[in-house]
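User: Can you model how adenosine-5'-triphosphate sits in this protein?
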Amino acid sequence: MSFLTIDDVWKSYADVQILERLTLKVEQGEFVSMVGASGCGKTTLLKMILGSEQPTRGQIQLEDQPISPEPNQARGIVFQKYSVFPHLSVLQNVMIADEFTAARFLGRTFGKQKQQIADKAIGFIEAVGLSHAIHKYPHQLSGGMQQRLAIAQALMKSPKILLLDEPFGALDPGIRKDMHQLIHKVWKENNLTIFMVTHDIQEGFELGSRLWVFDKVRHDPQAPTAYGAQITYDLALNSEKQQQAGQTLAKKYAKKVVNL
Ligand SMILES: Nc1ncnc2c1ncn2[C@@H]1O[C@H](COP(=O)(O)OP(=O)(O)OP(=O)(O)O)[C@@H](O)[C@H]1O
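Assistant: Here's the modeled complex, given as structure tokens:
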């Protein structure tokens, strides 16, 4: 049994075929980087793993169960654009999901229960390096700090899978390096399985233990929407040798398949 199984998945919107023939197995603890030309369906695959979109054909299973369309704590997501609540402080932003779970009707918790949630939140805020900003509001934070906050929020639900959709795309190169270190630490310490869409193929190589390249194999100039993208390369990046082989391949094909 694999942790996540993608079994002959196809996805179309109306008569536009986006993805086709995806068959992949992912084990727990892998870090899958996903690259490919803009619009080829990377985010669509993330959404199907999240459960917010359904395959048109085929099935995705997590631990032998079909992915449920309802929000599920097993899967957390961090987008490129900051997804934090502007009217809540750092601490409140990280606490809020647990508070809602604990107090479904009032959305508030009190006393010991609130303190327990706060203690847990403070742990994750420390882990992402935001202790000094715990009472600040999102507009007082830099872009990198807001992404740290979004990661702390996602970790609060102890997800097994973390879905990252160009999480560092809006950040300056120097800050991206810090974020790479952070996400690597978060990945290892929380035994996460990560799927990350990126337009930066080097980032994909540096962070991933595996790299998926999306590309359209079939073309019909008379019917440009008839065929979707497939995963044309599925590269393991665990060893130095695999990294080097992957880099060589990437140099050869990057111009064709990735908008660099
Ligand atoms: N809900 C939807 N209804 C119709 N078409 C959609 C919908 N969501 C996405 N699409 C289309 O599906 C295609 C793939 O979109 P997707 O966002 O998955 O691509 P992507 O590879 O992540 O692109 P980018 O790298 O630019 O973020 C695009 O042409 C997009 O317009």
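A couple of observations from the model: The longest strand covers residues 16-26. The mean pLDDT is 87.
User: Helpful, thanks.
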